[in-house]
C-alpha cells in the first residue's frame, strides 16, 4: 500500500500576523524542525511513502530547503490547491492520500495512525473532536441556541482512497471548507476518527505561544519518562569500477581515472552510513526503502537516502551521537578529501562535524579492492534518544 501526504501550504495566514505566512515562520528551537511546516513534515514522514507540498506562487523561495518532498504551486482557493496537488500525484502509483493543513504542525502520531487504520474499511476517514461547549445563535445578543448533539470539530489529516478523492475533486465546482465536503458531494463515506486538542490549526498570533508550550511540554515529558536509549548500527557497501573520470564518495566529487557503478550515484560511503542508521533503527536497508527495481531512483543522489534515514531516526526521537565511515581502496586517495566529506555528511544530517569521522585504509593489495576493481565501505552509527 503506497500512501502519500499532501500538505496544503498555499494560504497567506494574515490573521497570524508577522512578516511571513504562518507555515514558513519559526516554531520552537529544534534545528531539525525550525519552521511550522518542518514540524508538519516531521510528523507525517514516518507514516507515508511520499510527501507533496502545495505552496503559493510567491513562496517558492521558502521551499528550497524542504528535503525529500515534491513541491507544486497551488490555486486561488483551498480546494483548487488540493486539486493541483492531487493532479501532481496522479502519475504515481498512489493508493491512499492524507490531506493535511500545514498549520496543524503538532498532529500526534496516534491521530495519523487512526486515520490510516480507518481507510482499511472506508474510502474516507478524518479526525474530529465532539463539540462540548454550549452553542448560541445571534449577532450582538443571543437569539437562540443550537443542539450540539452529533456536532464535531473537524481536523486533518483527512485520508482517502486516492482515485476516489481525485475524481471527487475533478468533478467538484466552487469552493469547499475541507476535503470531507468535496468527498461527501461525491457520495464518499467518511469515517470519523478520534482527533486531539494538540492538533489545532495555528491561526492567530497567540497560537504560536500555545504551540511553543505544547512543544516544551512534550520535550519535558520525554525527558521525564524516557530513559536514555542508545542504538548502534553497522553498514557495509561495495561498488565496482567502470569507465569514467570521477567518483562520488561521501557526497564529494573526487577526480579519478574510473567511476563507480550502481543504480544510484554509487556513493559507497554514504550508502554504508545510511544502512548503519537503518540498522540502528532495526528498519532494514536502503534497498527496502528505495528499491533498485524502481526506476525513479536511477542515478539518484545518495543524500536523498541519508536524509531519509536521519529524518526517520529523528521522527522516532533519536539523534546522531556519532558516526564513523571507513573506505577501503587503493585509489583514489581519500585523505585530501576527508574533511570535505565529513562536512558534507554533517550538513546533510544537520549535526556538528565533530560527530562525523571519515577515514580510509587499503587492503594491502589483497582482494578486489587491492586489485582496484572497486571500493568497499564500512560504517558505524550511534543513535541516542535522551
Automatic annotation (TrEMBL):
One Pfam family cited in the UniProt record for this chain: YgbB
Keyword entries, A-Z: Isoprene biosynthesis, Lyase, Metal-binding, Multifunctional enzyme, Nucleotidyltransferase, Transferase
Gene3D superfamilies reported in the protein's UniProt record: 2-C-methyl-D-erythritol 2,4-cyclodiphosphate synthase, Spore Coat Polysaccharide Biosynthesis Protein SpsA, Chain A
Name this protein carries in UniProt: Bifunctional enzyme IspD/IspF
Function field: Bifunctional enzyme that catalyzes the formation of 4-diphosphocytidyl-2-C-methyl-D-erythritol from CTP and 2-C-methyl-D-erythritol 4-phosphate (MEP) (IspD), and catalyzes the conversion of 4-diphosphocytidyl-2-C-methyl-D-erythritol 2-phosphate (CDP-ME2P) to 2-C-methyl-D-erythritol 2,4-cyclodiphosphate (ME-CPP) with a corresponding release of cytidine 5-monophosphate (CMP) (IspF).
Region (2-C-methyl-D-erythritol 4-phosphate cytidylyltransferase): 1-230
UniProt site (Transition state stabilizer): 15, 22, 263, 362
Gene designation: ispDF
